[in-house]
Design goal:
This protein is of the alpha/beta class. It folds into two domains: 2-176, Flavin prenyltransferase-like (Rossmann fold, 3-Layer(aba) Sandwich); 186-281 and 289-399, 3-Layer(aba) Sandwich (Rossmann fold), CATH 3.40.50. 36% of the residues lie in helices and 22% in strands. It has helices spanning 15-25, 38-41, 44-51, 64-77, 88-96, 102-109, 122-126, 128-139, 165-176, 211-222, 250-259, 303-309, 326-336, 378-399; strands at residues 2-7, 29-34, 80-86, 113-118, 143-144, 148-151, 157-161, 186-191, 196-197, 203-204, 226-231, 243-246, 266-269, 276-277, 298-299, 315-322, 341-346, 358-359, 361-365, 370-372, 376-377. Helix 1 packs across helix 9 (165-176). The longest helix has 22 residues, at 378-399. The radius of gyration is 23 Å and the shape is globular. The structure holds cytidine-5'-triphosphate. The site of cytidine-5'-triphosphate has 14 residues, from helix 12 and strand 16.
């Protein structure tokens, strides 16, 4: 496959050299395009030597006749565009259609798949403008890998590190794999936390960001499924192409899931459903007094267990977020709730689980097998879940 590696101007630009080598090792023909800023950090010669090709360094080169249309030609000749490092500037320009150099002009002319690996200062990454731009790109089908967390070149510690080249290459492999193995399936995904009202102004919730569930919805869409996404309150933009139903409470989530159960063939319950709620929510705001306040909560219905009782031939995947005895707990829940697979993750280690872009999970299967997946971006994990689920279906049919 022919791919363009777009290199943005950031400290991490040197890592793109290693990425260009890795991508070629995996069979991609790599055409490097550098922004002007990138050339301040690393020489085009490095990439030319590594790829054996002329590196594109600008819209207006000496060859006036060919240069004016070269960005269209490069867009036509390649099936994927990978941008690493993607600076805040590139993310903003791609999201808003600003074409003011070769890479951004080529992007607008490009009809293939696009992957961006952002890298920038933590505050720049966290800025509402950047987050909004990233969500716009994601919803448009762009694959976003990272950023990771760690010590940054600017001396701060936090989100903003370029993912390691091998992680980006793994993501590229998963994202570009031509698969249509979920066509004809209807995948019902639940994602995010639920929000349980205590009174008209207060609620309880949990730390789920919805990123894992949204990645599952994206992966299912990319593999040809019809996707129904039942989402608790999150700040993510739903992937284009999914039928999204927004809910708040566990009761609302249950209703949406049961309404769409009949038409679903695969159900993935990645939502972190609140276990308790206030059954009779006061109509008025609860007022402060000097006395101790005791909150009485009742259990919410267990949606996964209810679906498990009525699942028929459907494939059912549950999730378990654990702080200890992860595999044993996951297996217990898988059996108790009649799932085909339970995805167990440990949530008290940094960089994976709740709120982060990466995850490290163990798949506990109905067949008795446990499959530990290496730490990877959630979008990669999502594809691996479907890979194993489809294999599981084959082995379940073989048993019948
Ligand atoms: N789940 C559900 N409805 C609930 C609670 C949980 O559908 N009311 C689902 C979640 O979506 C997840 C799975 O059950 O797929 C496991 O959730 P978890 O909270 O880990 O399990 P619990 O059975 O609530 O066990 P505990 O909180 O005691 O660990």
């Amino acid at each position: 496959m022919n791919v363009v590696l777009g290199v943005g101007g950031g400290i991490a630009a040197y890592k793109a050299a290693e990425l260009s080598r890795l991508l070629q090792e995996r069979g991609y023909a790599v055409q490097v395009v550098m922004t002007e800023a990138a050339q301040q950090f690393i020489q085009p010669l490095t990439f030319a030597a590594l790829t054996g090709r002329k590196v594109v360094t600008g819209l207006f080169t000496e060859d006036i006749l060919s240069s004016s249309i070269e960005h269209i030609q490069v867009a036509r000749d390649n099936q994927a565009l990978i941008v690493a490092p993607a600076t805040a500037g590139l993310v903003g320009k791609f999201a808003n259609g600003i074409a003011d150099d070769f890479l951004t002009s080529m992007y607008l002319a490009f009809t293939g798949k696009v992957i961006m690996a952002p890298a920038m200062n933590t505050n720049m990454w966290n800025h509402a403008a950047t987050q909004h731009n990233v969500e716009l790109l994601r919803a448009r089908g762009c694959g976003i890998v990272g950023p990771g967390e760690g010590v940054l070149a600017c001396g701060t510690t936090g989100a903003g590190r370029l993912m390691e080249p091998v992680q980006i290459a793994d993501f590229v492999d998963q994202f570009l794999m031509e698969r249509n193995d979920l066509s004809g399936e209807t995948v019902l995904v639940t994602a995010g936390p639920t929000q349980e009202a205590l009174d008209p102004v207060r609620y309880i919730t949990n730390r789920s960001s919805g990123k894992m569930g949204y990645s599952i919805a994206e992966a299912a869409l990319a593999r040809g499924a019809k996707v129904i996404l039942v989402s608790g309150p999150v700040s993510l933009t739903p992937p284009a192409g999914a039928q999204t139903i927004k809910v708040k409470s566990a009761l609302e989530m249950r209703k949406a899931v049961l309404n769409h159960l009949a038409e679903s063939t695969i159900i993935v319950k990645s939502a972190a459903v609140a276990d308790y709620h206030v059954a009779n929510i006061p109509e008025q705001k609860v007022k402060k007094t000097a006395a101790r306040f005791i909150l009485e909560l009742d259990p919410t219905p267990d949606i996964l267990a209810e679906v498990g009782r009525n699942k028929g031939d459907r494939l059912l995947v549950g999730f378990a977020a654990e702080t200890q005895n992860m595999v044993a707990e996951a297996r217990r829940k898988m059996e108790a709730k009649n799932c085909d697979m339970l995805v167990g993750n440990v949530v008290n280690q940094s960089g994976t689980g709740f709120e982060s872009d990466e995850n490290e999970v163990t798949l506990v299967m109905r067949t008795g097998a446990n499959v530990a997946l290496a730490r990877a971006p959630k979008r990669v994990i999502a594809d691996q879940i479907f890979d194993h689920l489809l294999k599981l279906r084959l082995s379940l049919h073989a048993v019948k």
